[in-house]
Design goal:
This protein is mostly beta strands and 649 residues long.
Length: 649
């Protein structure tokens, strides 16, 4: 079977980038330089010292200043033409007798380097202006020759771009919930373990530093009672603070401040992690009660725009993309806070066991008697759906947990187990009013652990959004591939995707599209969420052809391939040819691949993406059956990479 010219299998990533695993050819289009082998003395403008003879451009060193060798569109008959913003691959041979070539220009873009030794060179330069000129610049002392000059339009990578203007959680390879992050700095705190006493710290009233720890006695809760380190952070940047606290009090013992701005309150003993965006320049710890602090670390981090490679369920990872959503619960991990409403006979002990994020921050809930409840008040809108989700683990009590809500329908009871699991219930508001939504109601004799409560204005639960005193949101995600017409074949090809949706009742279809940037010319596959069908759309000059499958469970992973060429359009789903159109032209000018409709922000592909591939040839029925068959699976990314000879680019 032909290999795709572009493929995304979730693997490596960095902020804004999800790496492709099969390279788009680096060189595209035709050769732009004329007479690059200098077989004739034409097409080139020669500065002082340069001449063309013997199949090369030669410089004899007679120049007294920088000298150039230039090919320019419209000059000496050359047809050279560059496009602003495109990247070009430059390759040439050079023989250096003395000094060096100092820079190369491509359409106003420069590669400044000292090409000072003989050999073959390759460099990539992005055109910055409409100046269709290619130039070698040599120093006054350069003696040597240049040959075999080539300039081709190039794609520097075939990676996907991921945009999300917020942090977001995922399930990592160890099965733990985490927020992916990249550390951007070295350690910013000096003497964070106090091994050198109080060196580099400003020690306020009520603080002392002994035996490798800083301790406060709770006597000075004002600014003069701060332990701080100045000029280590920058306003507007994001940071991660970690430290260890020892105390005999389970209430608030420390407060952490960014200059004069409060960041967080610290309760009880243990290892603590705080994230914040700075508004000042110093980190300070203020005292509420007796406590000791040690092993303080601060690093600059990036948590936005990071692709979420998710391992939910184990096995091969998938790309998780979701819509904007907000957790309306203000204290998702601390059930002792005042935002929670519960009966007096509920015993809550914070931080008693390891939670699904791998740290000891899950609360113990022990009920005695009956009629117990645990809930929050939420302003709801009539006929709107709300998803309640929470992680429970039984600890020997009643395992039947009722969910309910005032002014709602959807009350139900879930059965919890002795292992951590997330339980989700969907409510529909029957009035526009403040309602008490209960994660427990009317039950008796419970003994369990709880963590990660969430309420969203959606008909399904999305990934966990932690909150610490205020509601928190996750921004919507968009994913785009290489945007270049030369990458894709409009005459024929295949768009393939292996995907699962997040909801089977969403009002918006979920698209993956290859288009010219408009709806006039496109090849799209999508989950038709209301009908339950999987669909394809091929448009040519604003003439549309639709293809549909039978109903599929869209929460399962489905393999979809849409093969296209003139009057031969085929939709394959899970090894079966679902639909054929024989009266449709091929699209024109395909140039943009993205996990969203060609035009329409409300039709982004929110779901789990196992792979997306683009073939520049229309595959045979046998190949399409093999490509989409559910029998063609790999146990790991590495197994697939070896079988198909993929390489991360």
């Amino acid at each position: 079977m032909a290999l795709p010219n572009m493929a995304m299998i979730p693997s490596g990533y960095k902020p804004t980038k999800l790496y492709s695993v099969l390279p788009t050819p680096a060189d595209i289009g035709s050769e732009l330089i004329e007479n690059g082998d200098f077989s004739t003395d034409t097409k080139w403008s020669k500065g002082t010292g340069f001449s063309i003879s013997g199949g090369s451009a030669n410089c004899d060193g007679t120049q007294t200043a920088n000298t150039t060798l230039v090919q320019q569109g419209g000059i000496l008959g050359a047809t050279l033409s560059f496009t602003v913003g495109k990247t070009y691959k430059v390759n040439f041979d050079i023989v250096v007798t003395s000094s060096f070539i100092t820079n190369i220009e491509v359409g106003g873009g420069y590669e400044n380097d000292n090409f000072d030794t003989s050999g073959n060179y390759t460099t990539y330069i992005t055109a910055l202006s409409t100046n269709d000129r290619f130039t070698f610049t040599a120093t006054p002392d350069f003696i040597g020759s240049i040959d075999n000059v080539s300039v081709l339009e190039a794609i520097s990578d075939a990676d996907f771009t991921v945009e999300r203007a917020s942090s977001a959680t995922r399930v990592n390879e160890q099965g733990l919930i985490e927020t992916p992050e990249f550390i951007l700095s070295d350690e910013l705190v000096s003497n964070g373990d106090f091994s050198d006493g109080s060196t580099d710290w400003v020690v306020g009233s009520g603080w002392s530093v002994t035996n490798g720890k800083a301790s406060c006695d709770g006597t000075d809760t004002g600014v003069s009672g701060w332990l701080r380190q100045n000029n280590i952070i920058v306003s507007g940047k994001s940071y991660k603070v970690t430290f260890d606290v020892t105390t005999t009090d389970i209430g608030t013992v420390l407060r952490i401040n960014d200059t004069n701005y409060g960041i967080a309150t610290i309760k009880g003993s243990g290892s603590k992690t705080i994230y914040f965006t700075s508004r000042g320049y110093s980190i300070a710890f203020s005292q509420d009660k007796t406590a000791s602090i040690d092993n303080i670390s601060i690093v600059e981090i990036e948590r936005e725009n990071i692709p979420r490679i998710d391992y939910t369920g184990g096995g091969c990872p998938v790309l998780l993309t979701e819509p904007q959503s907000t957790n309306l619960v203000k204290d998702s991990e601390d059930f002792t806070q005042g935002s929670w409403i519960h009966n007096s006979n509920l015993g809550i002990t914070p931080n008693t066991t390891i939670s699904p994020d791998g740290t000891q921050n899950a609360d113990s809930l022990v009920y005695s008697g009956s009629g117990n409840r645990l809930g929050v008040d939420i302003a709801m809108t009539i006929n709107t759906k709300y998803a309640l989700s929470i992680y429970y683990k039984n600890n020997g009590g009643n395992n039947q947990i009722p969910f309910s809500g005032s002014n709602t329908t959807g009350a139900t009871t879930v059965t919890i187990t002795d292992e951590w699991a997330r339980y989700t219930v969907i409510f529909t508001a029957t009035a526009t009013a403040t309602s008490n939504l209960r994660f427990m109601s009317g039950m008796a004799n419970a003994n369990l652990f709880a963590w990660g409560a969430q309420i969203e204005e959606l008909d399904y639960a999305t990934s966990y959004m932690p909150t610490y005193g205020e509601i928190a949101s996750r921004a919507t995600e968009t994913v785009k591939g290489v945007e270049n017409a030369n990458t894709y074949n409009s005459t024929e090809g295949v768009l393939f995707a292996e995907v699962a949706g997040l909801s089977d009742g969403d009002d918006d279809d979920r698209f993956i599209s290859l288009s010219d940037g408009t709806t006039d010319n496109q090849v799209s596959v999508y989950l038709n969420t209301l009908s339950g069908k999987i669909s394809g759309l091929v448009s040519s000059n604003n003439v549309d052809a639709y293809l549909n499958s039978v109903t599929h469970n869209q929460l399962d992973f489905n393999k979809i391939a849409l093969s296209y060429k003139g009057n031969d359009i085929n939709l394959w789903v899970n090894g079966v040819k679902a639909s054929t159109v024989t009266t449709q032209n091929a699209p024109i000018g395909l140039s943009v691949l993205k996990l969203i409709a060609a035009v329409g922000a409300n039709k982004a592909f929110y779901g789990k993406t196992s792979q997306v591939q683009v073939f520049n040839t229309a595959l045979s029925d046998f190949e399409l059956k093999l490509l989409t068959s559910q029998d063609t699976n790999y146990n790991s990314y590495e197994a697939m990479r070896l079988a198909l000879n993929y390489n991360i680019q």
